[in-house]
Every structure is written in C-alpha cells, then in structure tokens.
Amino acid sequence: MTNSLNILIADDEAPARNRLRELLSDISHVNVVAEAKNGQEALSLANIHQPDIVLLDIRMPGVDGIEAAQHLQKMTKPPAIIFTTAFDSYAMQAFDMSAVDYLLKPIRLERLQSAIQKARALLPSQLEAIAPLSPQKTHFSISERGRILLIPVADVIYLRAELKYITVRTAEKEYLLEESLNNLEHEFHNIFIRLHRNCLVAKAYILGYEKRHQEFDEDGNKSCEKHWVALLKNTDETIAVSRRQQHLIRAN
Predict the structure, then answer these.
(1) How many CB atoms lie within 10 A of CB 208?
(2) Fewer Cβ in 10 A, N or C end of the chain?
(3) Do domains 5-133 and 153-251 have the same CATH topology?
(4) Are 225 and 242 in contact, with CB atoms under 8 Å apart?
(5) Do residues 209 and 231 make contact, with C-beta atoms less than 8 angstroms apart?
(6) 111 phi and psi, to 5 degrees?
(7) DSSP track, 180-214
C-alpha cells in the first residue's frame, strides 16, 4: 500500500457512514474516495475507485458484508477488508479465530487507526471460515475486462461446465465463471439440480421434460435413440437429461 490510503466506506446506515468519515478525517494519510449503502454498491464503486481499504458493514440488505468481501477478493488488486459490526460475542469468536480484522460498533478512533495500520487482503481460508455467518450468496461474481460483475443467482437459467470454466446462462447473456461445478452444486443445491454430469439447471426455470430424437449419445457416438431433454423458460435451448438423472423426471 502507498503512504496515502484510499478508503471506501460501506454501511447501510447514514449515521454510521458519517461517524466513520469523521473519524477518518482525524487520521493522516487517508482519503475517503466513496461511500456505499450496500454490498452491491460497494463492489460497483470499488471497480471505479480501486480503494486500498474497504470498511465493510456486515449486516446490510441484499448483498451483505461477508458476501461483498467474497466478491471484492476477485478483483485484480483486492482491497484490504476491515469489517464493522454489532455482531454478538459468539460471532466475534469466528472472526478472532480466522484472524479477520473487525471493528465493533461504536467504533473508537484508536481502534480504527490500529486496524488501518495492519489492514490486508483476506485469504481464501479466512473467507471460507466466516462464510457460515452469512446467508447463502445472492450473486455470482464474474471477472470481465478487469471489472467484477455481479449476476443475481435468481437470473441464472443454468450452469454448464466447459473446460476450466462454467458458462453462466441468463435470459440475456452468457458469462464465464472460473469455479468448480461440484462446489456450485453443493452451495446452491436448493436452487439448482444436476440434469447432466456437466450441467446444473435452476429448478425455477424448468418448464417440463420431453423425449426427442438424439443424433449423438452422451459419449459423442452416433445414435438413433430418443432421449429426454428439459424445456426451459426464457430460452429455446434444451438441456439433455443423462440416463443417471432420469429418475428426476419420474419424480416430477
């Protein structure tokens, strides 16, 4: 970090943002570059201002602080994260054990100065340790042209593994996500269902199933058999249902 630190404040309460801004005005070599009211806005402003540090409230509507931190760490140059919170002592133990820096509200100047001096980007293991404190993620973060885009999970029709990437398909566009399909299935098992070894489909976007002639089998060999496909909302595409997963059709 440089001698002059650019700081982004993210808190859904205006008095809390004002309090932090006032405290920071008493600390030399820091510059507040932007203020955000939620995690999604924090990421958007971080893309623009590339802050050194983000002061991140944990409990915010929509994208909360912990999810926002996970997305921010995918930036080309991730900012250091200092959480601000009124969480109870049980949750604080999780932060302490993970060596994640936080400021307990009401925030005091001396503690803020100390946190800024030792602020650093979070390690993946630290994020993993505190993730259970947050509800299920509401957005996927996509790296695109040096920026991080947030795609609502509710907008995704399917997730398909292709080489080392996952194609994230919405009604409007396709995106590429560098992630494990197995990890995504585990994390979003209540939203997506595996219809094929390489594809998870959002349950809410399945209109039904239909049997169609199949030119190639699952191994790419010529075939004249019929096979089951899932019909999807908001797209003419269909997703093949593997033999192993055909019990799901019977269940419906």
Answers:
(1) 10
(2) C
(3) no
(4) no
(5) yes
(6) -70, -40
(7) -HHHHHHHTTTTEEEEETTEEEEGGGEEEEEEEE-
Using one digit for the tens of pLDDT, what is the confidence trace for 90-130?
577 778 878 788 898 899 999 999 999 988 888 889 888 88
Those residues with Cβ within 8 angstroms of residue 143's Cβ, 6 or more apart along the chain or in another chain:
74, 149, 178
222, burial (CB in 10 Å: exposed 0-12, middle 13-18, buried 19+): exposed
Beta-carbon contacts of residue 14 (< 8 Å; ≥ 6 apart): none
Q: Pairing relation of β-strands 30-36 and 53-57? A: unpaired
Which pTM value belongs to this model? 0.84
Decide if 32 contacts 7 (C-beta within 8 A): yes
5-133 fold = Rossmann fold (3.40.50)
Q: How many angstroms separate the CA atoms of 205 and 231, rounded?
A: 8
State how far the Cα of 228 lies from the Cα of 245, in Å rounded to an integer: 10
Q: How far is CA 174 from the centre of its chain?
A: 17
Sheet of 5-10, strand order: 30-36, 5-10, 53-57, 80-85, 102-104
Consecutive H or E run containing 4:
none
| Whether the Cβ atoms of residue 157 and residue 202 lie closer than 8 Å to each other | yes
User: What backbone phi and psi angles, to 5 degrees, belong to 80?
Assistant: -70, 145
Pick the CATH number of 153-251 from 2.60.120.280, 2.40.50.1020, 2.130.10.10, 1.10.1040.10: 2.40.50.1020
In the chain, domain spans: 5-133, 153-251
At residue 223, does pLDDT exceed 80? no
